[in-house]
């Protein structure tokens, strides 16, 4: 009798779990279809998104689901599908959505602040769209984000200090926008940051924040072609994990910190060209192992040496099969 009761209980429990899972699955499909309703899809890229199709919604275009404990949407990747229209907050009803990638489309609207309602969202990429307007102070509401990519849009105005609240960020890309003013001194909060890209913002007028030098995990620092002026901070000696540093095409002046060489052991690319830097070049950078074996390395700067000649020092690393060598050329520009 006891065995029969136990079997009946397990059967009922399994049936209840199945019914709940089925209901949840149906609800997720409805949420996705609601999100689709706000999107213009001229190439019919989302044709698989349909209740009339035999495919489970986890097999729809761009959808990734977790498999445990049950099928649930965790990732939505709609990159480069020629989509436009509205980025609707209805997508935030997917309670386990961790990644949303809408890059390389034609969404034309202000920053979709309402996506902060996606409580599990860790990665948001809306790069290379037509997003416009300022970064609102409410950007601080994206507390769970680890990746934030707003690059290649028409975002303007100052970078708000409230962005410093996003302490979990590992990647922050605001490059190729219309940002202006000075860069706030909030980067000390980004202790987990691996990539920082503020490049191609011609209207910035800012010194390079010295706080960046405290980001010990930072691997890529891209500040090229923006309005940075003044000296390269001595604090950059703290960037011990740095592999790529690009400060080119700015208005930087003064000496290149000799201490910068001590943080160059992992460098594969270093560019300070087209600035107004003076002085000798840090020897440790010239001997960085990664620079000697990198195909893409370029170190180029108008640098004044202790000679009557102003030179451009160009270091390129090449690697062809088993042969590695370093080419150093000095091009005179006159006194």
Automatic annotation (TrEMBL):
| Residues in the signal sequence | 1-24
Q: What are the UniProt keywords, alphabetically?
A: Leucine-rich repeat, Membrane, Repeat, Signal, Transmembrane, Transmembrane helix
Q: Gene3D superfamilies this protein is in?
A: Ribonuclease Inhibitor
On whether Membrane is a keyword of this UniProt record, the answer is yes
Leucine-rich repeat-containing N-terminal plant-type domain location: 26-66
* The keyword Transmembrane belongs to this UniProt entry's keyword annotation: yes
Return the PANTHER family for the record: DNA DAMAGE-REPAIR/TOLERATION PROTEIN DRT100 (PTHR48060), NON-SPECIFIC SERINE_THREONINE PROTEIN KINASE (PTHR48060:SF24)
Name of this protein = Leucine-rich repeat-containing N-terminal plant-type domain-containing protein
